[in-house]
Amino acid sequence: MDSNDTARTDHNIWPGLTARDPAALRDWLVGLGFTEGIVVEDGGIVQHSEVLWPEGGRVMISSARPDDPHFTTPVGGAMLYVVTDDPGGVHSRAEAAGATFTRPLEDADYGSRGFSILDPEGNSWSFGTYAG
Predict the structure, then answer these.
(1) Backbone angles phi, psi at 28, to 5 degrees
(2) Which whole-number Å values give the CA distances from 74 to 57, 62, 63, 120, in the listed order?
(3) Dihedral Cα 86, 113, 51, 29, nearest 10 deg
(4) Secondary structure letter of residue 87 according to DSSP
(5) Parallel, antiparallel or unpaired: strands 124-128 and 113-118
(6) CB 73 within 8 A of CB 123
(7) Looking at residue 50, what is its pLDDT?
(8) pTM summary value
(9) Which of 5, 63, 86, 91 lies at a CB distance of 3.0 to 4.6 Å from 46, suitable for a disulfide?
């Protein structure tokens, strides 16, 4: 398939993040517009959880566990892009949540409108209209 094929049907990719405080990260993302998904805990450890983006896709969040070589990533080491039709609305919610902005809300020369922030764990999130 050609990468410029406009007939392509995208399926979701679910990135996974590990966090020192998964509950706080989930709450912070819900404040931006994500909705609550499942939480699987065992002994105070979040084994698996999900938050869903209303426009499509979801993010998995679990407790940081350096002893698990399979389902862990360095805390704060992710960079994610979330497609939204309403970057201004998400930007307002990010301001209300006290997000650290690394890129202001702006129009890009490739036709997207968006901005970038850091979450409380240090992951970089960009929200914008660019959908490929």
Answers:
(1) -65, -45
(2) 22, 12, 11, 14
(3) -90
(4) H
(5) antiparallel
(6) no
(7) 97
(8) 0.88
(9) 63
CA distance readout (Å), 54 to 1, 3, 12, 83, 97:
29, 26, 13, 10, 19
**Angle at alpha carbon of residue 21, lines to 123 and 102, rounded to 5°:** 25
Q: Is 2 exposed, middle or buried (0-12, 13-18, 19+ CB in 10 A)?
A: exposed
The predicted pLDDT at position 9 comes to 62
Cα separation, 85 vs 47, whole angstroms: 32
Please write the tens of the pLDDT for every residue from 43-71.
Answer: 999 999 999 999 999 999 999 987 887 77
Q: Encode pLDDT of 86-110 as tens digits.
A: 999 999 999 999 999 999 999 999 9
DSSP label at residue 55: T
What are the structure tokens assigned to 72, written together? 């862990």
